TrEMBL record:
Keyword Transmembrane (UniProt): no
Residues binding substrate, per UniProt: 136, 310
Source species: Streptococcus alactolyticus
Protein name: Alanine racemase
GO molecular function terms listed in the Swiss-Prot or TrEMBL record: alanine racemase activity
Active site (catalytic residues): 40 (proton acceptor), 263 (proton acceptor)
Length: 368
């Protein structure tokens, strides 16, 4: 999808804020831990190449979801360790070896399949994934881990790390978290040989359970300045959102009582009103369920009236304003602020999804 560079809608990315957020976390966790930055899904909508280049001096490596995301970073000149968190197909192993990518191995079946296909794992860096209770990928017992580690070593792979992922580290109830932590700690303790890197801490764990960090952390949403828990847990120290979303009024008109706005005529004016059109819609990630939400214009709340369409929304203004007036969709205008978490609450989702859904049609504009 091509970015709509000639449209006023744009996402503004503060790269310095991301750097400061990383430094804030590092200052508040035990020293001597390695930091890997999670830049999967286009760095949670912020732009993976630009973010990785800006923060490379602050981190020890990067985490991505799949091999194509990893290759994008290599092509952008990133030469640090890149860990692919998801499972790749065995036939992609050679590409990973050529580009010095680190793979996640999550099952004996995967290894057996690779060996059956005659795929060499010699000198390949891998991390072993443990399913401590997340229920997605990974081995589920000490015996499985020992067997897989032995077979990986026999196949010539270099097992550089072992890790797990917590399901509820961002929740007030830490029962499940403690169960997973106990399982993983017990497994690590009883391994006959422990890989050099041991990691379980994501953003939430780094914020609220820093005492449980092993020797590496994986920083995701916290890097971008958002609370992993939404509003359930208070942040232990300040972080700054790195993304704001702006557009402009492109059309302003006055309507009268009884006039309808948008598909389905779901909004009907109760009197004389000024209605403005803003060029953003569900094709940009501004989803249909945001009807009835607000944007900021000149520091004032303006309701989204009528259905959100593919390319446009309509808002009710307090007065007639000129075409070109700035509209803040995420960010601060005057004394008022709209956050990705506010949007998530309106939509019944999480701030991660709000950011990741911002499509490539929305240009990213960077500042340092």
């Amino acid at each position: 999808m091509i970015s709509s560079l000639h449209r006023p809608t744009k996402a503004l990315i503060d790269l310095e804020a991301i750097c400061q957020n990383i430094e804030s976390v590092q200052a508040n966790i035990p020293q001597g831990k390695q930091t890997f930055a999670v830049v999967k899904a286009n760095a949670y909508g912020h732009g993976s190449k630009q973010v990785a280049q800006a923060i490379s001096h602050l981190v020890d490596g990067f985490c991505v979801s799949n091999i194509d995301e990893a290759l994008e970073l290599r092509e952008a000149g990133i030469d640090k360790t890149i860990l692919i968190l998801g499972v790749i197909m065995p036939e992609e192993v050679e590409i990973a070896r050529e580009r010095h990518l680190t793979l996640t191995v999550a099952s004996q079946e995967w290894l057996d399949m690779a060996l059956a296909q005659g795929i060499s794992l010699a000198d390949l860096d891998v991390h072993l994934k443990v399913d401590s209770g997340m229920g997605r990928i990974g081995v589920r017992s000490l015996d499985e881990a020992e067997h897989l580690l032995a077979d990986l070593k026999k196949a010539g792979a270099h097992v550089a790390g072992i890790f797990t992922h917590f399901a509820t580290a961002d929740e007030a109830d830490d029962t499940k978290f403690n169960q997973q932590l106990a399982f993983f700690t017990d497994l690590i303790t009883h391994l006959s040989e422990t890989p050099a890197l041991v990691h379980a801490s994501n953003s939430a764990t780094s914020l609220w359970h820093s005492e449980t960090i092993f020797n590496m952390v994986r920083l995701g949403i916290v890097m971008y300045g958002l609370n992993p828990s939404g509003t359930e847990l208070a942040l232990p120290y300040p972080i700054k959102p790195a993304l704001s979303l702006e557009s402009s009024l492109v059309h302003v008109k006055q309507i009268s009582a009884g006039d309808s706005v948008g598909y389905g005529a779901t909004y009907v004016a109760q009197g004389d009103e000024y209605i403005a059109t803003v060029p953003i819609g569900y094709a940009d990630g501004w989803t249909r369920d945001l009807q009835g939400f607000y944007v900021l214009v000149n520091g004032e709340w303006c309701e989204i009236v009528g259905r959100v369409s593919m390319d446009q929304i309509t808002i009710r203004l307090p007065e007639k304003l000129p075409i070109g007036t700035k509209v803040t969709l995420i960010g601060q205008d005057g004394d008022q602020v709209i956050t990705a978490t506010d949007l998530a609450q309106k939509r019944g989702t999480i701030n991660y999804e709000v950011l990741c859904l911002l499509s490539d049609r929305v240009p990213r504009v960077y500042s340092k």
